[in-house]
Amino acid sequence: MLTEKNSKRERALIVGVKLITDTVDIDNSMDELEKLVNAAGGVVVSRIVQKRDAIDTAYFIGKGKAQEIKNYCEELDIELVVFNDELSGAQIRNLEKIIDRKIVDRTNLILDIFANRAKSKEGKLQVKLAQLKYRLPRLVGFRDYLSREGGGIGTRGPGEQKLETDRRHILREINNIEKALKDAEKARSIKRKRREKSNLPIVALVGYTNAGKSTLMNRLIETDDKTNRNKKVFVYDMLFATLDTSLRRGRLPNGQPFLITDTVGFVSKLPTHLIEAFKGTLEEVKYADLLLHVVDASNSDLDIQIKTTYNILKELEVLDKPIITVFNKMDKTNIEDLIYDTRYVDKEIFISSREHTNLDELLNMIEKSLPQKYKKVDLMIPYNRQSLVNYFLDNYEVDHIEYLIEGTRINLSINQIDFERYSKYISC
Ligand SMILES: Nc1nc2c(ncn2[C@@H]2O[C@H](COP(=O)(O)OP(=O)(O)OP(=O)(O)O)[C@@H](O)[C@H]2O)c(=O)[nH]1
Ligand SMILES: [Mg+2]
Question: Coiled coil where (predicted)?
Answer without folding.
Answer: 160-194
